[in-house]
Amino acid sequence: MLQKRQKPPLRLLALFVIALSIVGLAGCATQDDRLGTLREINDLSVENSNDKPSSNAQDNDAKSSAKSSGKSDPNHPSENPPPLNSGKSSKLSSRLQAGFGIANLNSNAVADYTRFYGSHTDFILQALQKSAPYLPYIIDELEYRGMPTDLALLPIIESGFDPRATSSAAAAGIWQFIPSTGKRFGLQQTWLRDERRDPLTATSAALDYLQALYNQFGDWQLALASYNCGEGCVAKAQTKARQAGRGSDFISISPWLPVETQNYVPRFIAVRNIIAGTDLNRLLQANNKAAITQINFSGPVDLGTISAVSGMPLNDLKLLNAGILRQVVTANSNPIWISQEGLSRLKTELGKTDKPMLSLISLKAAKALPNETLTHFAIRQNVSVEEVRSINGIHASLSVIASGTLFIPIKGGELAFSGDESSLTPLRMVGEEKLLKQNQYVSNSDKMLLAAHPSIIENSGWIPGRLKLVGSQNKSRGISGRYSSFHIDIANKK
């Protein structure tokens, strides 16, 4: 999941000197000193907020920090959690920073990574911008559970907040769950849907896992280390440290941890310290414009038709629903996420009584021949290769279908997919397994490598059908269980 630390180029030594003033190096830096380069380079300076946390709060341990901020001890959550956002600042930046409660780590590694990220502010900014649709939900959930809000920043070093991120170890999504851990925490993984890539569904699982790790070790730094290398790895390191006459805290057991994990916690602490001293209000204003909501459907739909009816760009809808792998949403793979604006337009279009009944799916299932090329399949089905790739999430380097079912646009008079998954055969591409084992990298100016899912051609180009609905409000499960979700009952035109 994580890459080896890269040394910053010499030409950035001047910026390193500026970054040396950040907390953790000398212990006397102020909030306004931290990551001044982030505010200067990116013009993020706004009026200072009066409710920023003090630097001393970051040096307390997790339990005392939670207590001082009015948060319950995660080992002993209150029986009646407070309502969401009750009595809290409406500013996302203030809520995020005020809830920080993971102990600081004074080490050379934190200093090194502080200098590194201080000279790569574009990475942190891009990650925070990508977090816009999800961060409010994640912070809400952490506050509800009484967990430190620092944890909302963990996806920055895991995935850069890109739900398409994939590692060479097959870890996926913003929280980078490997398949086995995902299954352990109830994340559905099929050829049609991978909930590890659903940011909010995966958030519930990630916080469940982190809480369990904290309950086991009683320390958030050790919980983070365990999240990276596994609880067994940390437990064995503690045993070896005790045999050597050392303590069981993260610093004491570090020599017996994998090098990746030795760097993982300092990376997180460095990013947290940087963000703790940065005024994010202007940057996080984007979150107010990125409000999303959940829709559940009583029948099959496809993202292309939802995009056309709601007016939400298809590539944005796909990114928001990165867990939907083939663009088709069956009744068993609900829900989907959509912008509030898109939902409003969708309800308007569906509520028009002067139009005939519509269908929310304009795709059909077609079975490929064994070892058929995409070109041959596209010609046989009278569709373009680009459409087939885009709808079915097929990487540009894969061109031979080993076996399985693909979804393609319906033509005039054809019946759309009925939603019966039992009639489908999972799609397999020749060379797919080899591709999944390769890291696809996105690099910044210093070649800091981040795992990234192979890109998909977004232009599908088919004409959507029409639909009709009866809408009602309900509650959904998981992290969004305390949020309203719009339910749509579909009546297919006969």
From TrEMBL:
Coiled coil (UniProt feature): none
Signal peptide feature range: 1-26
Superkingdom, taxonomy of origin: Bacteria
Keywords: Signal
InterPro entries reported in the protein's UniProt record: Lysozyme-like_dom_sf, Transglyc_AS, Transglycosylase_SLT_dom_1
Chain spans, region Disordered: 46-91
PROSITE patterns: PROKAR_LIPOPROTEIN (PS51257), TRANSGLYCOSYLASE (PS00922)
Sequence ranges assigned to domain Transglycosylase SLT in this UniProt record: 142-244
Pfam families named among the record's database cross-references: SLT
GO molecular function, one term: peptidoglycan lytic transglycosylase activity
Biased composition (Low complexity): 57-72
Chain intervals with Polar residues compositional bias: 46-56
Cellular component GO terms held in the UniProt record: membrane
Biological process per Gene Ontology, one example term: peptidoglycan metabolic process
CDD domains: MltD-like
PANTHER family hit by this protein: MEMBRANE-BOUND LYTIC MUREIN TRANSGLYCOSYLASE C (PTHR37423:SF2), SOLUBLE LYTIC MUREIN TRANSGLYCOSYLASE-RELATED (PTHR37423)
Family the UniProt entry places it in: Belongs to the transglycosylase Slt family.
Name of the protein this chain belongs to: Transglycosylase SLT domain-containing protein
